[in-house]
């Protein structure tokens, strides 16, 4: 078997976004496109002799082809071994777990997360470093810079590797070990949580429904919830991963997980519902006919963390992305632990976790996790809730309402305007920036603007600076409106509008978030000229 050096030309569009490089499948299938990006990764990291790489994806269309290409390229770049999930599958949190458990040099994860899959839909690739987390910006910038000057890539000329049978095989000088995609992750969950308490809860008749959305978490949920915790087999729905997610949009929210929502709001509603996304790192938590906002979920897990064995001795600190509600800040203040506010994207939590500054992290976008891995983790969040319910012996709704009664409620919503023309989206952001001089001190409806800015973050560990991470309008009563452009979409531009108001009055905690935020929604529309500039009256998705 020989190593081939293939001449190539750079592509100008291989800049990783919030979470890796994401494009439509046909875009990835262009000649040399994937190879160029993989070569740019390998050129940006110094692969030490004897290094191992972890490799897997969420199983979407093009996963298997991409795995074969990456294996052959890894074999041409001095890796001693690649650990690949059986069938080329690893959920994102499981990949992070494998990188950490086996001390690999890093890993490559193939996923476009919550975006649809299929021959005309999305594919994605990202590099994770040895801590198990998404590469920080300095690495993704180096990869991008390399991708713009690349002139050749190296690949082993070899037949495809069998991916479906566990065990070792040889690829040139490199070993390929096909590993059980689920076992290491499931073992880690069993170490963190009180499985016997959860088993007893489920045996007592507490009914759960987990929607894997035909995405990667089906086998993980079956192994953990059914095999290890004893839930009835029909507790996991849409459990068979499909290359196109059954034509669905594997995003666990009230819009796209409607099949689950219908059940959990229906006549024979289970006590608990949950879903996860394409690559298994997002989660949605539902009680019986009750939705838990992700920002509240983070705060409640933080407030109850000591009920979970792994966090029995308390948590060091918490972190949330800037647009995530400040509900967790109140818990941190009560616990007298630090709370960090980072830009959007899990890569910004890695340094804080590595330095032991924070234990729990979360984002409003249905992402929650802890330092057990370096990715957000959908099933972990589900197990947190089941563990907390098992100990408190209260319903999800009762736990949330008790939390609001104690801390007040951060009423929260996000409105997404998807697939806008790029110029229109940029125009909205520019129009907002142009008002930075005049808005502070002004009155908008019943709100007074305290300040506005473009969020900038200085990493407290390595000092790196990330600018222009979202426009904030901060009001004198602590309410906020935030505007951001998405960094994960593949169709035009997406404007995300985040709305938050603090409500201390328990008598008003039962209000629907859209009603409670209605005036702020109007103000946000006016100040940004969102509707005129986007040509849209309504958001595409409300969460
Ligand atoms: C979105 C979310 C962000 C999340 C990212 C990756 O990014 O807002 O919070 O970290 O997706 O999630 P953006 O740039 O589109 O707003 V996943 O589940 O795609 O790895
Ligand atoms: Co995801």
UniProtKB/TrEMBL annotation:
| Classification via SUPFAM superfamilies | Phosphoglucomutase, C-terminal domain, Phosphoglucomutase, first 3 domains
Could you tell me which residue ranges the Alpha-D-phosphohexomutase alpha/beta/alpha domain spans? 14-153, 184-286, 295-407
Q: Give the keywords, sorted.
A: Carbohydrate metabolism, Glucose metabolism, Isomerase, Magnesium, Metal-binding, Phosphoprotein
Q: Under the GO molecular function aspect, what terms does this record hold?
A: magnesium ion binding; phosphoglucomutase activity
Enzyme class name: isomerase
Question: Region labeled Disordered — which residues?
Answer: 1-21
Question: PROSITE patterns in the record, alphabetically?
Answer: PGM_PMM (PS00710)
UniProt catalytic activity: alpha-D-glucose 1-phosphate = alpha-D-glucose 6-phosphate
For this record, the Gene Ontology CC terms, alphabetical, are: cytosol
Sequence similarity: Belongs to the phosphohexose mutase family.
Q: What is this protein called?
A: phosphoglucomutase (alpha-D-glucose-1,6-bisphosphate-dependent)
Source organism per entry reads Pseudomethylobacillus aquaticus
């Amino acid at each position: 078997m020989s190593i081939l050096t293939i001449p190539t030309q750079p592509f100008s569009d291989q800049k990783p976004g919030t979470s890796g490089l994401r494009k439509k499948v046909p875009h990835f299938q262009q000649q040399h496109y994937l190879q160029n990006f993989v070569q740019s990764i390998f050129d940006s990291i110094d692969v030490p002799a004897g290094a191992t790489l972890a490799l897997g994806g969420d199983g979407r269309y093009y996963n298997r082809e991409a795995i074969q290409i990456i294996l052959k390229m890894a074999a041409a770049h001095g890796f001693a071994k690649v650990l690949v999930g059986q069938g080329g599958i690893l959920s994102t949190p499981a990949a992070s777990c494998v990188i950490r458990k086996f001390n690999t040099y890093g890993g490559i994860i193939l996923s476009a997360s919550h975006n649809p899959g299929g021959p005309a839909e999305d594919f994605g690739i990202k590099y994770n470093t040895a801590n198990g987390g998404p590469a920080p910006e300095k690495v993704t910038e180096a990869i991008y810079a390399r991708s713009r000057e690349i002139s050749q890539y190296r690949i082993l000329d070899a037949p495809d590797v069998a991916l479906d049978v566990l065990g070792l095989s040889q690829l040139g000088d490199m070993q390929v070990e096909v590993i059980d995609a689920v076992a290491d992750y499931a073992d880690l969950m069993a170490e963190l949580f009180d499985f016997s308490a959860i088993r007893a809860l489920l045996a007592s008749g507490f009914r759960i429904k987990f929607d894997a959305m035909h995405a990667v978490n089906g086998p993980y949920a079956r192994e953990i919830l059914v095999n290890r915790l004893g839930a009835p087999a029909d507790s996991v729905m849409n459990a068979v991963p499909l290359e196109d997610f059954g034509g669905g949009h594997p995003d666990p929210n009230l819009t796209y997980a409607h099949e689950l929502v219908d059940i959990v709001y229906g006549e024979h509603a289970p006590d608990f519902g949950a879903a996860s996304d394409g690559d298994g790192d997002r989660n949605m938590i539902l009680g019986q006919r009750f939705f838990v906002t992700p920002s509240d979920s983070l705060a409640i897990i933080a407030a109850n963390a000591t009920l979970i064995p792994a966090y029995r001795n308390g948590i060091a600190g918490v972190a949330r992305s800037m647009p995530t509600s400040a509900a967790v800040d109140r818990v941190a203040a009560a616990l007298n632990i630090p709370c960090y506010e980072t830009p959007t994207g899990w890569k910004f939590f890695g340094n804080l976790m590595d330095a032991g500054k924070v234990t729990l992290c979360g984002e409003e976008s249905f992402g929650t996790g802890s330092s057990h891995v370096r990715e957000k983790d959908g099933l972990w969040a589900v197990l947190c809730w089941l563990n907390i319910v098992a100990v408190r012996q209260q319903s999800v709704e009762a736990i949330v309402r008790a939390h609001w009664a104690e801390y007040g409620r951060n009423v929260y919503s996000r409105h997404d305007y998807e697939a806008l023309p790029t110029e229109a989206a940029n125009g909205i952001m520019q129009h907002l920036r142009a008002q930075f001089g005049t808005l502070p001190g002004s009155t908008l409806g019943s709100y007074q603007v305290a300040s506005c800015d473009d969020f900038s973050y200085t990493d407290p560990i390595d000092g790196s600076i990330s600018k222009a991470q979202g426009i904030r309008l901060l009001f004198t009563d602590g309410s906020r409106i935030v505007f951001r452009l998405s960094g994960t979409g593949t169709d035009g531009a997406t404007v995300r509008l985040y709305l938050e108001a603090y409500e201390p009055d328990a008598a008003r905690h039962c209000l629907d978030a859209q009603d409670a935020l209605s005036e702020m929604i109007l103000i946000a529309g006016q100040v940004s000229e969102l509707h005129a500039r986007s040509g849209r009256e309504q958001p595409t998705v409300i969460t």
